[in-house]
Amino acid sequence: MSFEVVGRVHKVYDTETKGSNGFQAREFVIEISGMYPQFVKFQLTQDRCALMDNYAVDQNIKVYFDLRGREWNEKFFTNLNAWKIEKADGATNSAPPPAAPANNSFPTTSDAPATTAADDLPF
Q1: What mean pLDDT comes out for the span 45-72?
Q2: All domains in the chain, ordered by first residue
Q3: How confident is the model at residue 115 (pLDDT cuts 50, 70, 90)?
Q4: pLDDT classification of 116: cutoffs 50, 70, 90
Q5: What is the dihedral of CA 35, 7, 42, 113, to 10 degrees?
């Protein structure tokens, strides 16, 4: 399932290497404006960690992401796994980004193509 959201970069963390296998992860937080602003943390992994190098705090961006969940010791964890980031002003697209929902409370689904049963890639 793929989603997208537009917000302002609030904080960008350094890339961290986890474990002895060289797994890399980087987190960043965006602020979604509204009557009650929301601060949402995303995660980038492996070669996608460098995607945030081109963006600075207070810059408006559009984040494309997937929901990821897992269980560990009868506890459940959810990650927002970002896989694409672009400027919210449409500079990287020929068309401007779609308008945010009126309530600005949660991201909307993207119009990404549906996958088939034989296609196990998340994008």
Answers
A1: 93
A2: 2-91 (2.40.50.140)
A3: low
A4: low
A5: 110
Chain centre distance of CA 115: 20
Tokens 């009126």 belong to residue:
102
3-state secondary structure of 60: strand
Beta strands in 13-110 (DSSP E): 16-18, 23-32, 38-45, 60-72, 75-87, 108-109
* Distance between CA atoms of residues 97 and 25, nearest Å: 27
Answer yes or no: are the C-beta atoms of 107 and 100 closer than 8 Å. Answer: no
User: How far apart (Å, rounded) are the C-alpha atoms in residues 28 and 23?
Assistant: 17
Determine the Cα–Cα distance for residues 39 and 26; give it in Å rounded to an integer.
16
pLDDT score for 2: 83
CB 33 within 8 A of CB 101: no
Cα 39 to Cα 27: distance, rounded to the nearest angstrom: 13
Average pLDDT over residues 60-71: 94
